[in-house]
């Protein structure tokens, strides 16, 4: 085998492997990427029902209901970004750090019109932590301006769900 | 005595020693000044001792509950058990950076101690490069994350440690993982030294390989321990989350695996030299960026400790200097390295090249999946995430050919090989794989799982065949075979064992894709059925612990009426931090794990119901067992006489009969 053909083999092997890798990545990007959505985005333009998305926000205080369908425990709770609330249904054990009035990320699909079926619910290890996505959503919805100090206590703003941002900021916080 | 001030001073001293260690030997090596070069080992050992004193001081402060030290006040408490007071030292950002520096110091001292037979200029340069890297990290530790910072007034009690981290598995996971990460600093230093010298030859390959293999063994164990921890502590029934932190350890593992294979080609055939140097640089760069990008919170992750901008800037600067500097040096000096010859595609070295290409493609895929979401959010302000479906769809199709060629590779002779004789030797392994495939079609669902199971058995069978062929098992009397086995170089046995370990892990992964689980909410006395087992909730009791109270369930598992085990999953509420953790109960018979999790209590106290999550995880222990076997194979090949550091000399040929590794 000449030097040229040997080099050709090497190049072919590299191209084949990296090409396959690129093709696999592109294919997976078109189907397996999970987008992050906020409750208000679900309200405005719900993603297709077969698409897995991550829904992030705060758990509305007093919205958590635990039921039993047969022997299966089902938890329902509302997730809000201060503009809109989406009711999430989840079959399973809520994580240890799941609390009303704290941030949560639910992975699942949207069930029209305003429902969400979660296959997984994530709460952070740290109670004081707010997922970056949730913090962004808060800032976008006008509930929190980072220039004026730390984010509002979750308990104080999770019940201003459908109200106007400026109104709710002046409204006294109801206890959860 | 060991006070925080002494620790702080020792850390500063280590930093100065590291700086001297990074400069003087380099000058000595370029001037060929033997006296300056001879300073290197002493400086490296001195730096290690200073770091050791510093680290001991921090442990001493933690054990004696010195809450005037901020780090300890924030992460420890009087009520914390002694073991976790010690291990808690590296459970936080500052302490983990100090541990990082200490391990780097140990690596430098190890090169100083075991590298006596290296040429003095090479040894001086290797130690100097390690010193330069250490200077950077000790400066980082001193300026932005000082573990010895005091607070005033000192609190009476500390804030305590995250209960999730109070676990023996996690206590020893960071040192092992860090040893893996930092261990790759030594091949990196060898690569930089070789670039400065402008010389890479077979002897260089032979010197660098034991260090790479040792680091690889630790990294393998570290990753396996991390995965095991998330399996039995987090209680979600899974073992790998494809979280950025986990990927950050997998990426250097993939390039490190490529490195230990390509270094063989350098050693045996003096080819792939530039590529191996690049791999050594890449592996350490990935280790560095993995640990530090993740720890700095730049990648959003459940593991991030801190979000301090000063730290982030320092880390980015440091990464830029180390990675950018080494790549610039590579670009500048690599053309001066003489290129090795090309070789036939069907040969041992051809197979090793293929291994490298496939491993690097895998690495590229994992890297893309990990970096794409942060880039998207940075550049286009779109929040996306990439999870298990993405990685399953991209990594498995690339890993399958890797497993197939893993069977052939070790049996191909060097230089020029014929495929047919090797295939003839492997007919038994092929039959085993085909049978496995047939069984898997009935037992497993999912094409990828079936293919993975078949590939795993193919790898195991091929490794066994390789050893059987070399010992001429069943063709000569057994005693002769044993004799031959004893004469086999340990590196060959190690390779076969490590490859079989990969097969065992993959088999575990394939079987785990068939795991079953069930979530129920039941009153006491209910029996549930899962995977042919009857799980009965017998009782739930409250039990006090040292710094928590626990709700403990008694779960009886029967199989066809016969008692299999009584499990006690529990839920702990920690007093100090108002936090709860779930304590998973796992019963294993090595073929499957029965896995029980106790959830919340609902309903009135007179007739409470409890949420239970039950998992049946087939072959789960094999995933970590396989990783341990891989690491054992690596350690065995390290004990090979031919691999011993310093034993080889430049340009010495080896007898043809043993020229395999």
From TrEMBL, chain A:
Q: Could you tell me which Pfam families the record lists for this protein?
A: CcmE
Which segments sit on the Extracellular face? Answer: 29-176
Query: Which keywords are on file for this protein?
Result: Cell membrane, Cytochrome c-type biogenesis, Heme, Iron, Membrane, Metal-binding, Signal-anchor, Transmembrane, Transmembrane helix
Q: Cite the binding residues for heme.
A: 125, 129
Q: Where in the cell is it found?
A: Cell membrane; Membrane
For biological process, the GO terms are: cytochrome complex assembly; protein-heme linkage
Question: From which domain of life does this come?
Answer: Bacteria
Give the UniProt family note: Belongs to the CcmE/CycJ family.
Report the protein name in the record.
Cytochrome c-type biogenesis protein CcmE
Which organism was this protein described from? Acetobacter fabarum
The organism's taxonomic lineage, starting at the top: Bacteria, Pseudomonadati, Pseudomonadota, Alphaproteobacteria, Acetobacterales
What is this protein's gene name?
Answer: ccmE
């Amino acid at each position: 085998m000449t030097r040229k053909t040997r080099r050709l083999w090497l190049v072919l092997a590299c191209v084949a492997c990296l090409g396959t890798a690129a093709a696999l990545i592109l294919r997976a990007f078109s189907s397996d990427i999970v987008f992050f959505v906020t409750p208000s985005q679900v309200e405005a333009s719900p993603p297709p029902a077969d698409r897995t998305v991550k829904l992030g926000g705060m758990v509305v205080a007093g919205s958590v209901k635990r039921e039993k369908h047969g022997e299966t425990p089902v938890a329902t709770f509302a997730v809000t970004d201060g503009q809109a609330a989406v009711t999430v249904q989840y079959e399973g054990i809520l994580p240890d750090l799941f609390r009303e009035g704290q941030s949560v990320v639910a992975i699942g699909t949207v069930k029209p019109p305003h429902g969400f079926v979660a296959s997984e619910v994530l709460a952070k290890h740290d109670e004081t932590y707010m997922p970056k996505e949730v913090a962004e959503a808060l800032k976008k919805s006008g509930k929190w301006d980072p220039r004026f100090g730390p984010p509002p206590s979750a308990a104080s703003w999770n019940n201003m769900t459908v109200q106007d941002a400026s109104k709710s900021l002046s409204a006294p916080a109801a206890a959860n | 005595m060991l006070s925080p001030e002494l620790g702080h001073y020792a850390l500063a001293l280590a930093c100065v020693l590291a700086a001297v260690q990074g400069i003087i030997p380099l000058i000595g090596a370029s001037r060929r000044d033997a006296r300056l070069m001879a300073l290197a080992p002493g400086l490296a050992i001195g730096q290690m001792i200073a770091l050791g004193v510093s680290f001991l001081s921090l442990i001493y402060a933690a054990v004696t509950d010195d809450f005037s030290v901020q780090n300890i006040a924030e992460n420890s408490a009087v009520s914390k058990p002694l073991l976790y007071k010690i291990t808690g030292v590296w459970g936080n950002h500052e302490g983990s950076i100090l541990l990082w520096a200490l391990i780097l110091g140990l690596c430098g001292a190890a090169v100083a101690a075991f590298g006596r037979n290296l040429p003095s200029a090479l040894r001086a340069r290797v130690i100097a490069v390690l010193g330069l890297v250490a200077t950077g990290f000790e400066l980082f530790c001193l300026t932005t994350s000082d573990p010895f910072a005091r607070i005033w007034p000192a609190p009476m009690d500390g804030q305590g440690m995250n209960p999730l981290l109070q676990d023996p598995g996690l206590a020893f996971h960071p040192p092992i993982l860090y040893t893996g990460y930092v261990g790759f600093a030594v091949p990196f230093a060898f690569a930089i030294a070789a670039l400065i010298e402008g010389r890479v030859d077979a002897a260089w390959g032979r010197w660098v390989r034991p260090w790479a293999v040792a680091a690889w063994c630790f990294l393998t164990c570290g990753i396996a321990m991390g995965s095991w921890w998330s399996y039995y502590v987090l209680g979600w029934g899974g073992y790998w989350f494809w979280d950025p932190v986990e990927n950050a350890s997998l990426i250097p593992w993939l390039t490190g695996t490529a490195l230990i294979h390509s270094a063989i080609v350098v050693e045996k055939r003096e080819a792939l030299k530039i590529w191996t140097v690049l791999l050594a640089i890449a592996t350490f760069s990935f280790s560095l960026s993995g640990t530090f990008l993740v720890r700095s919170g730049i990648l959003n992750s459940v593991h991030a400790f801190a979000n301090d901008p000063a730290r982030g800037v320092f880390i980015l600067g440091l990464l830029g200097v180390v990675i950018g500097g080494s790549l610039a040096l590579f670009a500048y000096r690599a053309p001066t390295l003489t290129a090795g010859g090309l070789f036939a595609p069907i040969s041992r070295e051809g197979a090793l090249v293929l291994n490298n290409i496939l491993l690097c493609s895998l690495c590229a895929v994992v890297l893309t999946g990990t970096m794409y979401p942060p880039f998207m959010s940075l550049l286009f302000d779109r929040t996306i995430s990439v999870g298990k479906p993405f990685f399953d769809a991209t990594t498995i199709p690339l890993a399958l050919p890797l497993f197939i060629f893993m069977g052939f590779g070790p049996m191909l002779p060097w230089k020029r090989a014929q495929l047919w004789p090797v295939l003839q030797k492997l007919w038994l392994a092929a039959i085993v794989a085909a049978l496995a495939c047939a069984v898997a079609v009935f037992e497993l669902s999912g094409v990828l799982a079936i293919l993975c199971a078949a590939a795993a058995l193919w790898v195991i069978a091929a490794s066994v065949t390789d050893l059987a062929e070399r010992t001429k098992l069943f063709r000569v009397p057994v005693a002769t075979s044993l004799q031959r086995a004893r004469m086999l170089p340990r590196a060959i046995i190690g390779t076969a064992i490590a490859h079989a370990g990969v097969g065992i892990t993959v088999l575990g992964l394939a079987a785990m894709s068939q795991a079953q689980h069930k979530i129920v909410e039941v009153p006491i006395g209910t029996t549930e059925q899962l995977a042919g087992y009857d799980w009965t909730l017998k009782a739930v009791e409250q039990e006090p612990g040292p710094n928590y109270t626990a709700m403990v369930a008694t779960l009886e598992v029967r199989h066809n009426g016969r008692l299999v085990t009584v499990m006690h999953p529990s839920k702990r509420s920690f007093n100090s931090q108002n936090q709860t953790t779930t304590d998973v109960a796992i019963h294993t018979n090595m073929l499957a794990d029965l896995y029980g999790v106790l959830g919340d209590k609902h309903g009135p106290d007179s007739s409470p119901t409890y949420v239970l999550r039950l998992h049946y995880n087939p072959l789960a222990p094999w995933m970590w067992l396989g990783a341990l076997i891989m690491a054992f194979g690596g350690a065995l090949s390290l004990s090979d006489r031919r691999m011993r550091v310093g034993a080889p000399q430049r340009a010495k040929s080896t007898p043809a009969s043993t020229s395999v590794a």
